[in-house]
Specification:
Order of helices and strands: HHEEEEEE
Strand content: 15-25%
Low-confidence stretches: none
Strand order of the largest sheet: 1-4-3-2-5-6
Largest sheet: 6 strands, antiparallel, barrel
Helix content: 10-25%
Mean pLDDT: 85
Shape: globular
Number of helices: 2
Length: about 170
């Protein structure tokens, strides 16, 4: 059997309408597209719906079995989401995944967490964070500590539905 070799890289130039981008810029594009990347620091913090995977087609409720299916299905069909993924800009270097977010109404208790962040081309950082609905209302969100840098909301390219009442059956 001949030794296994990797295919040669295709070095043809890109069409004039395409350009190569650095990995950091590619990561930023994913953030602006509203697609979260769950990493080791955030792997146990969210159910798929709070990371908007149900909104971007990243989870199918009619297909197969998977770990955690009961919890996810209960949230989908009976529960009420208290938090969702949103995009923000902050005038700091990119914060680490799982960095807590604070709001005045919650005091010293965190009301959200950074999912991922990347340097923004115009300066500062853009980030995706899962945040409690109650923290989005009136005053600013802060990064890292209750009086930390202020986050500015950014639009997502898809609609995030407002929270609805729980679908729990009456007994």
């Amino acid at each position: 059997m001949p030794p296994m070799t990797w295919p040669k890289r295709h070095n043809a130039s890109l069409p004039p309408t395409r350009a190569r981008v650095a990995a950091e810029r590619w990561h930023w594009f994913g953030i602006r597209a509203g697609i979260p990347v769950i990493t080791m620091p955030t792997q146990d913090l969210f159910v798929p719906q709070t990371a908007n995977w149900d909104l971007v087609g990243g989870i199918n409720f009619r297909k197969g079995c998977y770990p955690g299916q009961e919890i996810v299905a209960r949230m989908q069909y009976l529960g009420r989401l208290k938090e969702r993924l949103f995009a923000f800009h902050v005038e700091t270097p990119p914060p680490a995944a799982a960095t807590p977010l604070y709001h005045a109404a919650f005091g010293a208790q965190a009301c959200g967490a950074v999912v991922n962040a990347a340097a923004a081309p115009e300066g500062g950082s853009d980030l995706l964070a899962v945040v409690q609905w109650n923290a989005l209302a009136d005053s600013a969100l802060h990064l890292g500590v209750p009086d930390g840098p202020t986050l500015a909301p950014l639009p997502l390219p898809y609609d995030v539905p407002a929270p609805s009442a729980a679908n729990r059956p009456r007994l």
